[in-house]
Design brief:
Elements: H1 6-16, E1 20-27, E2 29-30, E3 42-43, H2 49-66, E4 74-82, H3 90-103, E5 113-118, H4 122-126, H5 128-133, E6 138-144, H6 148-154, H7 160-172, E7 178-184, H8 191-203, E8 208-213, H9 221-227, H10 236-252, E9 256-259, E10 262-264, H11 271-277, E11 282-285, E12 290-293, E13 303-306, H12 311-320, E14 327-330, H13 333-346, H14 353-360, H15 364-377, E15 381-383, E16 389-391, H16 393-397, H17 399-416
Parallel strand pairs: 1-4, 1-11, 2-3, 4-5, 5-6, 6-7, 7-8
Antiparallel strand pairs: 8-10, 9-10, 12-13, 13-14, 15-16
Helix pairs in contact: 1-14, 2-3, 8-10, 13-17, 15-17
The chain binds iron/sulfur cluster (SF4).
């Protein structure tokens, strides 16, 4: 039995005493489907009023049925993701904001981070003032690149002039918290082109930047083209150079790389995304949405719930019983431990050994001795005197592989049990 200090007892109590909830609403419709996209999406060009109204009704039914699972919690964050949530009318967004706030009263609604994902388009930029009035106070804008050739190669619907006018319109509508999504290592992209994207991105002075290396998921048109030899993925070394280039430019401009893919100005981290990385309760509603169910004595490590990814199956599940939509997986201690390390290592602060011990009874070394030793020896991991773990600069380039070793160690343990 591990030694337990008063601090650890308090920390363990806090693990079960998180009194907040984040709410994620998935709005899956997109004007057109990008060839690399692996999200739960539905083409809708345009989004018909009846389709929107039916989906809205389903979301409200699911919220009403599921709120009791998070009873008494206050709203910490609200996030509209997709798909392209901004193709919903502002009245629909307002209806949903009000319904969520009514279900989970926040301590101060004006301060609740409320994010809407938005794609550059003239239709959506005209709606920005109304989204602001509906209670949205943060935008995550899918710019991806300011280079028309790159946007074309990525199969995006928009072009750079619309990206620029959408960013101007967002500021004019009073949004003071903007996040820009940027894709790198796209088809044929080189570091000079990426440098130009970063130059222009910085001219727009966003508060937050999310960067994504283009991936080729097997079931997407890009994935199939790669398998057929019709496309080439960026070489690993070039992609690593790009990651270093992004980090150096953004950190030089005052951003903090607080998570592997995420950069923020001081005080502008994404509180909603942080809930996933810190394994806090999130109620996910809608097609393909994931929930992190609240921890309880029965489920000390929480549970995940995954909603169906097909629109008709989701509607059918909501119609049958809106409180049981989705498949639940209670997290075993092995899965939770692997994920705790995996998610913590993605963050700048890394893994807090005291917090880990409070949840799992022993410090990280007790479970991951060989993995920690090997990653430290290879220069990928730093281990503090108290057992805290943090990736080095080199380790950050290999974050997924380093973290995978910890997850695999837990996988072997659960197979062996
Ligand atoms: S806009 Fe975003 S969600 Fe929609 S298809 Fe493209 S990548 Fe996927």
């Amino acid at each position: 039995m591990a030694r337990e200090s008063k601090g650890q007892t308090t920390m363990r109590d806090n693990l079960f005493d998180d009194s907040s909830v984040g709410v994620y609403l998935h709005l899956p419709f997109c004007d057109r489907i990008c060839p690399y996209c692996d999200f739960a999406v539905v083409p809708a060009r345009p989004l018909e009023a009846a389709v929107e109204a039916r989906y809205l009704e389903g979301l409200q039914a699911e919220l009403t049925a599921r709120r009791s699972d998070f009873q008494g919690r206050s709203l910490a964050t609200l996030y509209f993701g997709g798909g392209t949530p901004s193709i919903f009318r502002p009245e629909s967004i307002r209806t949903l904001v009000e319904a969520v706030r009514e279900a989970f009263p926040a301590r101060r609604t004006d301060e609740t981070e409320t994010t809407l994902e938005l794609n550059p388009s003239t239709l959506e930029e005209a709606r920005l003032p109304e989204f602001r009035e509906a209670g949205v106070n943060r935008l995550s804008i899918g710019i991806q690149s300011f280079d028309d050739d790159q946007l074309k190669r990525l199969g995006r619907a928009h072009r750079a002039p619309v990206a620029r006018s959408t960013l101007s319109a967002a500021r004019a509508a009073g949004f003071e918290n903007l996040s820009i999504d940027l894709i790198f290592a796209g088809p044929g992209q080189n570091t000079t082109e990426l440098g130009r994207d970063l130059d222009e991105l910085l001219e727009w002075s966003p508060e937050h930047v999310s960067t994504y290396e283009l991936t080729f998921e097997p079931e997407t048109p890009f994935g199939k083209a790669l398998a057929a030899g019709k496309m080439e993925a960026c070489e690993e070394d070039r992609a690593a150079d790009m990651i270093e280039q992004i980090e150096s430019r953004l950190e030089g401009a005052g951003f903090e790389r607080y998570e592997i893919s995420s950069y923020a100005r001081p005080g502008r981290r994404s509180n909603h995304n942080a809930r996933y990385w810190q394994r806090q309760a999130v109620l996910g509603l809608g097609l393909g949405a994931h929930s992190m169910e609240a921890r309880s004595e029965d489920r000390p490590h929480g549970a995940r719930r995954a909603n169906p990814r097909s629109l008709e199956r989701w509607h059918a599940a909501v119609a049958a019983n809106p409180s049981t939509v989705g498949e639940i997986e209670s997290l075993s201690v092995e899965t939770a431990r692997g994920e705790a390390v995996f998610l913590a290592l993605r963050q700048r602060e890394g893994l807090n050994a005291l917090r880990f011990e409070a949840e799992f009874g022993e410090p990280p070394r007790a479970f991951f001795g060989p993995e920690i030793r090997s990653a430290v020896d290879r220069g990928w991991l730093l281990e503090g005197a108290a057992g805290d773990l943090q990736l080095t600069a080199e380790g950050r380039l290999l974050a997924d592989s380093v973290a995978a070793e910890f997850v695999a160690a837990e996988g072997n343990r659960s197979v062996g049990n």
